[in-house]
Structures are given as structure tokens and as C-alpha cells.
């Protein structure tokens, strides 16, 4: 299993669930590199800065977890990431992509050019490049499960706060990508599942719900957006 996503509480919850349910997996986190960014929660076993080639073992890896470095804005890096995951695991049957971008409160009229580049490269282009590489692998095998996960956030800024402009932009693009992939799911030999959750305080429950659907491998769920809602109701 390959798990890729923004360093966040949600990614940590999904990794923790993977550790309980799978023998081994690889993790490819995306750091928050926006200017003025506050330190972000790190996923289990992930240090603040990921260094080294994805093809070289990290000294702090255990036998279950493999942490892979990648540059989301590079199509070559996306291909190398998938190859490295296959080398580590032998094959990839499941891929979980987790878009939970950091909140970046910036005034659109005074954006830092470097932050715009970071938004496009790390939080938009990377998903398209990685999806392309994973679908190539799954099509060649004739099977696999691609899961796309994002929180359902409708958070308004406070009276004296600047709205979260960049984070919401990244999330909107990922949501559109998910819907496009789900609409094409029935013409593909692999499964494509979407997951969104409105209970941002129950990331552990959301993660457990995701893995419950994955373990069932039910083709009736193919092409659907599965919603984890209030009070634990699954839709």
C-alpha cells in the first residue's frame, strides 16, 4: 500500500490505521513549505524534514513502514516514487491519496509569488502527476484500488481573519480531480473510491471507515464518493 498526502492529523490517522491492518506500507508525505508556515503535525515516524533518495533506506525506518521522499511538482519524481514503492513492497495493490492542505491565510492582492509557485507545484500538480503514474500501474496489472481522500471543510474566517485562500484552492482542485476520476471509474479495470468527511475532530473514525470499505473490496462502491458524516453515520 502506498499512502501519499499532506502532513496533517488526517494523514497521521490513516497511517495509524494502516499500521494496524497491513503488514507493510510506504508513506510519501508532503510538507507545508508556504512562507511563514507554522510547524505542522508530523505523521507517525516522519521527521519534520524528509531527506535522502527514495531508493535508499532511512535509518529510522521499522520493518513495517517505509518513508519515501519526493518532489510533488516533478513528473519524474512521481514516477520515481511509484517505482520506489514497488521496489520496497514488491507490488502496489492499493494507493491512498490524502489531500488535507494547510490553512494559509493570505490576502489575494498581496500574495507572495513563492507561495503561488508552492501552491501549484506541491499541492496541485503533484496529484495529477501521481495519479497518472498510479493509473498506468493499475491498468497494466488489470487491478488495484485508488482511493482519494479529503475533508469536507466549510470553515469561514473570523471577523478579523483573512480567509484561507491557498489551502481552499488546493482542496477545490483535488475535489474536482476526484470527481473526474470517479466518473470514469467504470471504464477502468481497477477500483476508484472517493472519501470525504465532515467530522474533522474524528479523524480516527474517518480512517477506520476508509479501511473498512477497502477491506470489503466491493465493486458496488466503485466510482462512488463515500461520506463520513456526523454522529458516525456512513453514507
Protein described:
With 235 residues, the protein is of the alpha/beta class. The chain is built from five helices and seven strands. A seven-stranded parallel sheet has the order 3-2-1-4-5-6-7, with helices on both faces. It starts with a strand and ends in a 7-residue tail after the last strand. The model is unreliable at 39-60 and 231-235 (pLDDT under 50).
Task: Summarize the entry for a quick read.
This protein is of the alpha/beta class and 235 residues long. Helices cover 38% and strands 16% of the residues.
SSE arrangement:
Blueprint: E1 2-6, H1 9-21, E2 25-30, E3 65-67, H2 75-89, E4 94-98, H3 113-141, E5 145-151, H4 166-183, E6 191-197, H5 203-216, E7 225-228
Parallel strand pairs: 1-2, 1-4, 2-3, 4-5, 5-6, 6-7
Counting DSSP H or I runs of 4 or more residues, the number of helices is 5
Q: Unreliable segments (pLDDT under 50, ≥5 consecutive)?
A: 39-60, 231-235
CATH C-level class is Alpha Beta
Helices and strands, in order, run as EHEEHEHEHEHE
Relative strand content: 15-25%
Query: Residue share in helices?
Result: 25-40%
Largest sheet: 7 strands, parallel
Name the average pLDDT. 82
Coarse shape: globular
Q: In CATH terms, what is the architecture?
A: 3-Layer(aba) Sandwich
Q: N-to-C terminal Cα separation, in Å?
A: 25 Å
Kindly give the count of domains. Answer: 1
Radius of gyration: 17 Å
Number of strands: 7
Strand order of the largest sheet: 3-2-1-4-5-6-7
For CATH, the homologous superfamily is named as NAD(P)-binding Rossmann-like Domain
CATH topology call = Rossmann fold
Structural class, from helix and strand content?
A: alpha/beta
Amino acid at each position: 500500500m502506498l499512502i501519499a498526502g499532506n502532513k496533517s492529523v488526517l494523514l497521521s490517522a490513516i497511517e495509524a490505521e494502516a499500521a494496524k491492518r497491513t503488514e507493510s506500507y510506504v508513506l510519501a508525505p508532503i510538507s507545508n513549505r508556504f512562507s511563514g508556515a507554522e510547524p505542522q503535525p508530523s505523521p507517525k515516524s516522519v521527521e519534520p524534514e524528509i531527506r535522502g533518495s527514495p531508493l535508499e533506506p532511512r535509518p529510522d525506518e521499522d520493518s513495517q513502514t517505509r518513508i519515501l521522499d519526493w518532489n510533488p511538482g516533478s513528473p519524474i519524481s512521481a514516477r520515481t516514487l511509484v517505482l520506489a514503492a514497488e521496489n520496497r513492497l514488491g507490488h502496489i495493490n492499493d494507493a491512498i491519496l490524502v489531500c488535507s492542505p494547510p490553512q494559509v491565510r493570505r490576502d489575494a492582492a498581496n500574495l507572495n509569488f513563492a507561495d503561488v509557485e508552492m501552491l501549484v507545484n506541491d499541492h496541485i500538480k503533484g496529484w495529477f502527476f501521481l495519479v497518472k503514474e498510479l493509473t498506468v500501474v493499475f491498468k497494466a496489472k488489470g487491478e488495484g484500488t485508488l482511493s482519494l481522500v479529503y475533508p469536507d471543510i466549510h470553515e469561514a474566517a473570523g471577523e478579523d481573519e483573512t480567509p484561507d485562500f491557498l489551502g481552499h484552492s488546493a482542496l477545490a482542485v483535488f475535489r474536482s480531480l476526484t470527481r473526474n476520476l470517479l466518473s470514469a471509474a467504470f471504464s477502468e479495470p481497477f477500483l476508484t473510491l472517493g472519501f470525504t468527511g465532515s467530522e474533522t475532530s474524528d479523524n480516527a473514525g474517518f480512517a477506520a471507515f476508509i479501511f473498512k470499505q477497502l477491506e470489503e473490496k466491493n465493486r458496488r462502491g466503485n466510482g462512488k464518493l463515500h461520506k463520513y458524516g456526523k454522529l458516525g453515520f456512513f453514507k
